[in-house]
Amino acid sequence: MHIDLRQLRHFIALAEHRSFVAAADAVCLSQSAFSRSIQALEHSAGCRLVDRASKELNPTKQGLIVLEHARRLVSGAHKLANEIALFNGLEAGELRFGAGPAPAAWLVPRAIAAFNGRYPKARVAFQVEHWQVLGKRLQGEDFEFFVADTRHFEANPEYRTLRLKPRKWHFCCRPGHPLAGRGTVSAAELLSYPIATNLSPPNLRKVLVDLSGRPDFRPDIECENGHGLNAVVLASNAIGIASGLGQGVGEPLVALTVAELPEDLEELHTRYGIVYRAGYSLSPLAEAMIGELQRIDEETV
DNA sequence: ATCTACCTGTAATAAGCGAC
DNA sequence: GTCGCTTATTACAGGTAGAT
Question: Which residues contact A168 (CB under 8 A, 6 or more apart)?
Answer without folding.
Answer: A243, A244, A268, A269, A270
